[in-house]
Automatic annotation (TrEMBL), chain A:
The chain crosses the membrane at residues 6-23, 35-53, 59-78, 90-111, 117-137, 214-236. Belongs to the UPF0014 family. Its main location: membrane. The keyword Transmembrane helix applies. It comes from Peribacillus huizhouensis. It is a multi-pass membrane protein. It is found in: Membrane. The keyword Transmembrane applies. It comes from the Bacteria. Keywords: Membrane, Transmembrane, Transmembrane helix. This is ABC transport system permease protein. It holds the Pfam family UPF0014.
UniProtKB/TrEMBL annotation, chain B:
This is ABC transport system ATP-binding protein. PANTHER family: ABC TRANSPORTER I FAMILY MEMBER 17 (PTHR43423). It comes from Peribacillus huizhouensis. It comes from the Bacteria. Keywords: ATP-binding, Nucleotide-binding, Transport. Residues 5-237 form the ABC transporter domain. SMART domains: AAA. CDD domains: ABC_PstB_phosphate_transporter. GO terms for molecular function: ATP binding.
Length: 251, 244
């Protein structure tokens, strides 16, 4: 795709801007900023990837992955602001999910151990993990606000911290996974997944593209489940103090 | 007489939207074994906080709370909470059947409740309710179930937080009778927060008046209502009578 063609495609954003203006939607500024931001971010990433793919040193790849996990953690940790050590809990969760998932893919030689594959697939794992972590924290907070007295009740009857929070934890994990599971149900029927579409447009055999897409679907389901469970079990002790009292006043 | 509960100069603060609220200020008092102490006072005066300190659902910022001759901080927390049961105003229930709610204290210990019928009978609930959803019960039934559930742990001390305030007068009377029976038959020590002065007068051996985090007056119930010593108590009782 030439730069001229790319420039023309920005016409979609300009056209949306005029539509927003005509119908007084008040989104004009956001549309333009989003368009420009996406352009800058993706172009920068494109050039960075180009450089990293050229390095033979695996350290460069690991550094790139660390940066990705770090940025994803900053984003997801906003939902848990006020919870002690939330940044490191999310960082650890996403790192574990990335290591296990990539370890499986590379260990069984499902994908080649090259930066092209590793970084692209890691982007999907880490991004998905970040979204699930945010959804989980959002849900957990809402559930705790609604069902605080259930937690206190179990504690008052001599239950442990884990026993008191477990039903809420389970519900929050389930709720945070629903969008991922629902999203995969209509896959291919309503819309073709972005990666598959990209491969087909780039000239790949559709059946080969489907195989890769299936790999991504399975991997994302696994990473989502793993993220919610690990984060849930890392976070729940932080919701209580040493005297086994529910303490979420700072959240 | 042995002292079951003792508060020694207890203070407690809350942080409410960046503002420090002194909910209890130097509270001291004793509750003897088998006694019923009724706690009255205006809303937000710290009555419920006093209860929550006894089973470590809250920790005092200053002072000490002793249960059966031992500082609450020295108890194994789970053992303390089984020994000092609490029943809440709304009688909260977990999703599930009456039987599941009733057997919860045992399940938390990895045991099964052998004789649920015995507890149902004791609190005046019929056996056929066991399979009903607990959240579908009436207010009075829920409060009885809540008391039965607390009794499964066989507590020596019972903390009651406005347990009849949401009930109609008949249910309130029945629940009150049930609590008095528990006290009589099991020698359970009871700390009973109520906004109902006539109830406090009926059921209490001792009565404490709490205003703005301080115990204004603590006296034998009869004396408290007939011949209060403190001016603030007289005003509080008078105000309530006029309001009624």
């Amino acid at each position: 795709m030439s730069l001229i063609a790319l420039l023309f495609s920005f016409g979609f954003v300009i056209f949306s801007f005029f539509l927003s203006h005509a119908f007084k939607l008040g989104l004009g500024r956001d549309l333009i900023i989003t368009g420009i931001r996406a352009t800058i971010q993706l172009l920068v990433v494109g050039y960075i990837l180009n450089t990293v793919f050229g390095f033979e040193n695996p350290l460069a790849m690991i550094l790139m992955l660390l940066v990705m996990v770090f940025v994803a953690t900053i984003n997801a940790a906003k939902r848990g602001k006020g919870l002690p050590r939330i940044f490191w809990k999310i960082f650890l969760t996403i790192s574990i999910v990335e290591i296990i998932t990539q370890g499986f893919l590379l260990g069984l030689q499902i994908v080649p151990a090259t930066p092209q594959y590793t970084i692209s697939i890691s982007g999907m794992i880490i991004g998905n993990s970040m979204v699930i972590a945010s959804l989980f924290l959002n849900r957990l907070k809402a559930e705790l606000e609604m069902r605080k007295e259930e937690v206190v009740l179990v504690l008052s009857l001599g239950g442990s911290v884990k026993q008191s929070i477990y039903p809420i934890l389970k519900q929050s994990i389930r709720s945070s996974l629903i969008p991922t599971i629902e999203g995969q149900r209509t896959i291919g029927l309503v819309q073709l997944p972005g990666m598959m579409t990209g491969q087909i447009i780039a000239g790949a055999d559709p059946v080969e593209a489907v195989r890769f897409q299936l790999l991504i679907v399975f991997m994302i389901l696994f990473a989502a489940v793993l993220t919610a469970i690990i984060l849930g079990f890392l976070i729940y002790p932080e919701l209580f103090n040493k005297k086994q009292q529910l303490d979420i006043s700072a959240w | 007489m042995t002292t079951e509960i003792e508060f020694i100069n207890v203070s407690k603060t809350y942080l409410n939207q960046q503002e420090v609220v002194n909910v209890l200020k130097g509270v001291s008092g004793k509750v003897e074994k088998g006694e019923i102490v009724t706690i009255i006072g205006p809303s937000g005066s710290g009555k419920s906080t006093i209860l929550s300190l006894c089973n470590l659902l809250l920790t005092p910022d200053e002072g000490e709370v002793w249960i059966q001759g031992k500082d609450v901080g020295d108890w194994d927390i789970q053992t303390l909470r089984r020994q000092v049961g609490i029943a809440f105003q709304g009688a909260p229930m977990l999703t599930g059947t009456v039987q599941e709610n009733l057997s919860l204290p045992k399940r938390l210990q990895g045991k099964t409740l052998e004789n649920p019928k015995k507890y149902m009978e004791y609190v005046g609930l019929t056996e056929d309710l066991l399979l009903r959803q607990a959240k579908e019960l009436s207010g009075g039934q829920r409060q009885r179930l809540s008391l039965a559930r607390t009794l499964v742990n066989d507590p020596a001390i019972l903390l009651l937080d406005e347990v009849t305030s949401a009930l109609d007068s008949l249910s309130a009377h029945e629940v009150e009778e049930l609590i008095l029976r528990i006290n009589r038959e099991r020698q359970t020590t009871i700390l009973w927060v109520t906004h109902d002065q006539s109830q406090a007068e009926r059921v209490g051996d001792q009565t404490w008046l709490v205003i703005e985090g301080r115990i204004v007056e603590a006296a034998p119930t009869k004396q408290f209502f007939v011949k209060p010593k403190q001016e603030q108590t007289k005003q509080f009782l008078e105000m309530r009578r006029e309001y009624k």
